[in-house]
């Protein structure tokens, strides 16, 4: 994605590289070394050294000493706090998502499009039940995950065209759209799944804060979430949760916004 973006004269490559450093951090990290950041970003060492120095000076990274690992700094925490307050639908859905995670024994999550991937923005693990372990910041395939399929099916044609989709990807999106029309949730067909190790069902929600759909998803290991449960139990429950959220926030159904 970076290669095509760098050809855009309006695209600020240095800024993008700096942000890629911040995006390299995951919730489970106990700090990252220069080498680890380089592995995750693909940036050359001289460039990375300048970026980490600048980000540290601005408070976006903290670095106590020469041999210490880099950690996200107070400026990032401040941005996160502001973002969390401004994205009201996440907190409004939190209690219901935790209840659904507990009752279904699945990992419930909200995922948002991040270029050609889906990034987990929030997760709810079922209490007293073993479940798959995915954390905020983890990225899924846009084409091949149920979260991606729900987002693709609900996004406008202009947004979709910007992804330069193949004919197979257009057909995949259409199948997702038909699922939403028929039952209000999507399950990625077996022939397009990016992994067979996780079963998941998703429902799109139009996030006015972003002007784009995000995906509400429940997922688990195939032995714990078979096709029948997805179709008859978890999918309908997740659909009803999102529809209730639409009513509470005064949002129109997501498909009504697709152009």
Characterize the structure shown.
This protein has ten helices and seven strands. The protein has 259 residues and is an alpha+beta fold. The chain has two domains: 2-80, Winged helix-like DNA-binding domain superfamily/Winged helix DNA-binding domain (Arc Repressor Mutant, subunit A, Orthogonal Bundle); 87-257, GAF domain (Beta-Lactamase). The strands form two sheets. A five-stranded antiparallel beta sheet has the order 5-4-3-7-6, sandwiched between helices. Strands 1-2 form a two-stranded antiparallel ribbon. α6 runs antiparallel to α10 and α7 crosses α9 (167-183).
Provide the fold topology:
Blueprint: H1 2-6, H2 13-23, H3 34-41, H4 45-57, E1 61-62, E2 71-72, H5 74-86, H6 88-104, E3 107-114, E4 117-124, E5 139-141, H7 146-154, H8 157-161, H9 167-183, E6 199-207, E7 212-220, H10 227-249
Antiparallel strand pairs: 1-2, 3-4, 3-7, 4-5, 6-7
Helix pairs in contact: 6-10, 7-9
């Amino acid at each position: 994605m970076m290669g095509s973006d760098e050809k855009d004269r309006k695209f600020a490559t240095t800024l993008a590289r700096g942000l890629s450093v911040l995006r390299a951090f995951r919730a489970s990290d106990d700090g990252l070394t220069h080498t680890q950041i380089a592995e995750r970003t693909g940036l050359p060492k001289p460039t990375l050294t300048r970026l980490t120095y600048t980000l540290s000076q601005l408070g976006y990274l903290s670095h106590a000493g020469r041999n210490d690992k880099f950690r996200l700094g107070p400026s990032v925490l401040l941005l996160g706090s502001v973002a969390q307050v401004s994205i009201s639908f996440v907190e409004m859905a939190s209690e219901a998502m935790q209840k659904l995670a507990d009752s279904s024994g699945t990992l419930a999550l909200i995922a948002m499009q991040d270029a050609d991937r889906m990034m987990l923005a929030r997760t709810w693990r079922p209490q007293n039940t073993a479940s798959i372990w995915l954390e905020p910041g983890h990225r899924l395939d846009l084409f091949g995950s149920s979260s991606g399929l729900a987002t693709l099916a609900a996004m406008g044609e202009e947004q979709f065209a910007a992804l330069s989709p193949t004919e197979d990807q257009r057909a995949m999106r259409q199948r997702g759209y038909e699922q939403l029309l028929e039952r209000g949730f999507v399950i990625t067909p077996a022939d397009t799944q990016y992994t067979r190790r996780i079963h998941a069902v998703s429902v799109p929600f139009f996030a006015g804060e972003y002007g784009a759909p995000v995906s509400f998803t429940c997922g688990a290991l195939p032995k714990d979430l078979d096709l029948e449960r997805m179709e008859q139990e978890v999918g309908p429950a997740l659909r009803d949760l999102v529809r209730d959220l639409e009513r509470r926030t005064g949002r129109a159904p997501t498909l009504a916004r697709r152009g």
